Amino acid sequence: MAQKSRNEIPEKYTWDLTTIFKTDNDFEDNFKKVQELSDKASKHQGTMATNAETFFSAIESSLAAFQLLEKVYVYASMKNDLDTSDNKYQGYIARVNALAAQVESTLSFVQPEILSIEPSVIDKFINEKPEYQLYKHYLDYIEKKRPHVLNENEEAIISKAQDVLSSSSETFAVLANSDLKFPEITDEDGNKVPLSNGSYGLYIESYDRRVRKEAFQGIYSAYGEYKNTFAQTLAGQVKADNYLADVHKYPNARSAAIAENNIPETVYDNLVNSVHDHLDLLHRYVALRKKVLKLNEMHMYDLYVPLLDEPPVEYNFDQAKERARKALEIYGDEYLEAVDHIYNERMIDVYETKGKRSGGYSGGSYDTNPFILLNYQDTLDDVFTLIHETGHSVHSWLTRKYQPYVYGDYPIFVAEIASTTNENLLTNDFLANSEDPKLKAYILNHYLDGVKGTVFRQTQFAEFEHYLHISQQNGTPITADGASEYYGKLNSEYYGDSVISDPEISLEWSRIPHFYYDYYVYQYATGFAAATTLSEAMFNHQNGAVERYLGFLKSGNSKYAIDTMKEAGVDMTKTDYLDKTFAVFEERLNELEKLI
Ligand SMILES: [Zn+2]
Question: Model's pTM, two decimal places?
Answer without folding.
Answer: 0.93
